[in-house]
Structure formats: C-alpha cells, structure tokens
Amino acid sequence: MDRLYLFREKALVGHICCLIAFYTYFKTESYVFSLSKNNYLLTEPGKDVKSTDKGKLGDKEMTLSEVKSLFINMQNSDPSPQASKYKEGSDKEFCLLANGFWQAEGYIGGIFRSELNFYPLCTATQLFSENSAKFFIRLNKALCNKGTFSITLNSFGKFVIAYRLSGWNAFFTVFIPYFYMLYGEKYQAILKLKKIYELKNHIKQHNLDDKAKVLLVSLVYSLTAHSPRYKISLEEKLISLNLNIDLLKELPKVLYKENSIKPSFLFILGFFLGDGTLHLKLEWKEKNSTVVIVPLFNIIQSNVESNKYIMETMTNCLKDLKIKANLEKGGSTYTITVKGVDNVFNSLFPLLKKYTHFLYGKSESFNLLLWAERLIRLGGHHTYFGLKVLIEKIYDNTNERFTDKDVWMDRLEYWLKAVSARREHGEYYISPIYTPDKQIRGWQIRFPSTLKLPKSNKAFMSPTCGGQDKALAMAVEYRDKTISDWININF
Fold first, then answer.
1. Domain boundaries, the chain
2. Is 311 helix (H, G, I), strand (E, B) or coil?
3. Residue 228 has what pLDDT?
4. Any residues with CB less than 8 A from the CB of 396 and at least 6 apart, and which?
C-alpha cells in the first residue's frame, strides 16, 4: 500500500520498498512503490499503479492524482499552530494520543543498507481519508516536519496513506523523545535500536569482534514478531557475512524491562483510533420479541505474549476511570470491551465527548452513537417509529452488517404486535375509558413518562367521534402521528 522517499543511492530504494511493502501489505493488503526524488514529501506511483487509476474515497470515485492533490491542498491550508491548538487540543494531549496510535499501528525497525550498515525506519499506515490525513499532517508537525508521506491505491481499490521517519538522527532527536509511552515489543524495539547503534559504533573501532557483529544482526532480526517471514533467515544472513552461526549460542540472554509509565485515557483513545471500533449492535430476544440496543467500544489485538501486558494495562486504566471494561482472550485475539447503554453512554461517553476533536476517522461512528444516545435518553427507542428510524440510520452507515436490514424490519413488526398484544385492547399507550357500569365510552392516550414528549395525552370519546370503533381509530391515528412527528422533528 505504499512507497518510500529517495535515499542518495538509487539501489537502496528497492530494498527499502521491499521492507515497507511487507509491513504495509501485512497491515492493509496493499503494496509500496518507489518514490520520486523530485518530491520528497509525497511519493509518486510506481509503474504498476497509474495516476489515472481510480479508487474509492468515501462514496466518491477518485484518481490517485486527485487524492494526492487533495492531500497537498490540506497540507497547504493547515491552520496556524495557535488556531489548531485552540480548536484541536493541546500539543501535549495530541502527543499522548499519537503514542497510543503508534502502539497500535506503528512499525519500528529498519533495513541493512549494506552488510552491517543498519538504517532505522519508523512507519505507520492508515486507509486514506481527510481525517487520517489531518492526523498525519499534525503528527509530522509535532515531529519537526522530519517525516515523509506516500499515498497509494491498494488491491481493494482503497487509498492508503503512509507516514515514515528514517535515519539515526531522526530516531534519536525526534522519535525517542516524542514516543516515550510505548510498551511491549515496540518499547523493546527502541531499546534494541539503541543497542544496535552502540554496536555499530563499537564495530567501527573493533572490526574483528565477530561476537558483536552476530549480536547486532540477531538484534535486528528480533525487532519484529515476523522474522520467520524474512526472505533471508538469520543464519543465512550471518553466513553471507562470513560469521560463525555457533556464536549465536554464546550471546547473552537479555530480559528487557517494561515501560513503567502508566498509559492515560488519551493513549487508549489513540490506540482505539488505530485498532478499535465503536458501533451499535442490535440483539433480538426471541422469547419476548424484544429489540435490545447494545452500544459497543472494542479494542482488538492479536493473541501474542507481547500484547498481553498493554491490553491488561489499558483495561485496568479504564477500570480506574470507573469504566466497566472486560478483557477477553480468544483463540487468536485479545479484546477489550466496554458494552451496554450504561457503561458506554454514562461512563465512557463523558470522556469521548471531552475529546471529540481527537476522534478523526472514528467521528462518523461516534456521531451515530451520539444520535442513538439522544434517542434512548428521550425514550424514542420504546416506540415503533423510533426503532424504525434507528434501524434505517444504522444501515445507512458504511459498516457492513451480518443481518440484512429487511430481517430487522420484519422483527420490528413482530415487536409491534407483541407490545400491542400485552395491552388490554391491543393498542399500546391507549386505554379504555369506562362508564360507571363498565361500558367503554372512549379511549385515553397516555404516553409514558420515559417518552419525553411534550404534553400530548388526549381522550377520544365515542359519542363525539361517531362510535367506539371510530374513536379507537382516531386515537390510534393521533398516537402514531404524535410519535412520528416527534421522531421526525428530533431525529
């Protein structure tokens, strides 16, 4: 899904592209292509992708050139630092957010330029949208404009943006000071890169120290969890350098400490931007024909030991904030879940509302839940018309659903019948008005207090409406119109 900026040696470009191509393909099913030396901030397509090739950006079809032009215009029109700070949160807050995002989506590694000449690369990728572009533009400013961008079209017809920092100078002067709140494998990668740099300098002075060379190469191969996928194995690399692979057995066993800084909510929010979901789930209770609305906040990571610590730490952080979060371990994943109306809307939402300017690509999902929260708080979800508009809004959302919309519309009709059947005369919110001798003389509409309607209770009397049946029909019509108008006006 990506490309790379030009180093002095043209031959180096191919090697770098292979590394980033693997990483970006692994994350997003797209490829990296080489960069143009005429534009070091935004790369150009390789021969396999033409600027005229079209992909989807939201619900629009655009060419790669059009998307790049959009991105360049966004860079050029980026607001002043003071205006941005006022509108989009402080730089310190954004830093915490960016640390969480890099923990979820970032890569810390590098390539061998030649033999033992190792070169660090730190990259992150996302599907391109105006929101993801805004995030990376701000991140690059925070990192002293030291990074480079590339935009590509992946095999699914989606545009992808990649951001990268490269070189030892950028790593030590920009990356390490800024990304101080990383954990697990990413934190260890920083420690390993520091050691690799020390070994590089040591080997320059002590070129015959084969053990140091073997240690350097083994550290490089331990930087990611995907070393088995390297084209050249660790042993093959050592042999190509005329190093004795038996020296691997003599290397010291190193236990890397964990980062002792506790993550903040903004870190978790950044992590959520990278690997989280916020959505509405509908559940159908067959026994009593009930529609249950379940808001969900999820963060998902692969079930590997290096992810266990950070997932447990984030779960505990949410609990400390009085948010009921559960960590579930599946066969292949760890999942942090905040579930249910009370947990999401009453505990989590106050914090999300405080940082809406940091939601970027999750804004659409958040706005849907914000809408649903209002519907629920005003009681609209207890009505046929409220549930109908909820289902329509959910299915207008771009997320795919396992259950067809028509299935839920049918279930809604079952719900209406079940609710009505529980009433004495088969109409919800409508009760008979009796004469002293227990004869029905009219119908009273009483909306429940949970439904925050304007005062709308009304009686329809049989003598003035042309009989009992006509009075009931008028009451039903009034009830439906009152609720429908209220839903249409407010939602």
1. 10-250, 265-421, 430-490
2. helix
3. 53
4. none
**Euclidean distance between CA atoms 376 and 368, whole angstroms:** 12
Confidence of residue 49 (pLDDT cuts 50, 70, 90): low
pLDDT of 19 higher than 50: no
DSSP string, 245-276: GGGGGGSPP-PPPPP-SPP-HHHHHHHHHHHE
**Side-chain-side CA neighbours of residue 134 (13 Å):** 16
Calpha distance 443→183 (Å, rounded): 66
Instruction: Say which residues have a Cβ less than 8 Å from residue 17's Cβ, sequence separation at least 6.
Output: 3, 4, 32, 33, 34
Instruction: Give pLDDT tens digits for 135-161.
Output: 999 999 999 999 999 999 998 899 999
The tens digit of pLDDT for each residue in 244-288 reads: 999 999 998 888 888 999 999 999 999 999 999 999 999 999 888
**Cα–Cα–Cα angle for 5, 26, 236, nearest 5°?**
80
- Which residue type sits at 214? V
Rounded distance between C-alpha atoms, residue 329 and residue 341, angstroms: 23
Which CATH number is correct for 265-421, 3.100.10.20, 3.90.180.10, 3.10.28.10, 3.40.50.10810?
3.10.28.10
The model carries a pTM of 0.84
CA atoms within 13 A on the CB side of 400: 1
CA atoms within 13 A on the CB side of 53: 17
Specify the DSSP class assigned to residue 6.
Answer: P
Three-class SS state of 147? coil
Quickly name the fold that domain 10-250 has.
Answer: Endonuclease I-creI (3.10.28)
CA distances to 22, 111, 118, 120, 391 from 204, rounded to whole Å, are: 30, 18, 13, 18, 66
For residues 378-399, give the mean pLDDT: 90
Q: Are 360 and 266 in contact (CB under 8 A)?
A: no
Q: What does the alpha-carbon distance between residue 248 and residue 233 come to, in Å, rounded to a whole number? A: 13
Question: Residue 264: exposed, middle, or buried by beta-carbon count in 10 A (0-12, 13-18, 19+)?
Answer: middle
Q: What value does the mean pLDDT take over residues 235-242?
A: 95
Tell me, what's the pLDDT at 81?
Answer: 54
Contact between 146 and 174 (Cβ < 8 Å): yes
The whole-angstrom separation of Cα 287 and Cα 484 is 28
Q: What are phi and psi of 396, to 5 degrees?
A: -75, -20
Cβ-proximal residues to 423 (8 Å cutoff; 6+ apart), any chain: 430, 431
The stretch 154-183 carries a mean pLDDT of 95
Angle between the 64-76 and 130-142 helix axes, to the nearest 10 degrees?
50
State the DSSP code for 80.
P
Concatenate the DSSP letters of all residues of 326-381 into one string: EEEE-SSEEEEEEESHIIIIIIIHHHHHHTGGG-GGGHHHHHHHHHHHHHHHTTGG
Task: Establish whether domains 10-250 and 265-421 are of one fold.
Answer: yes
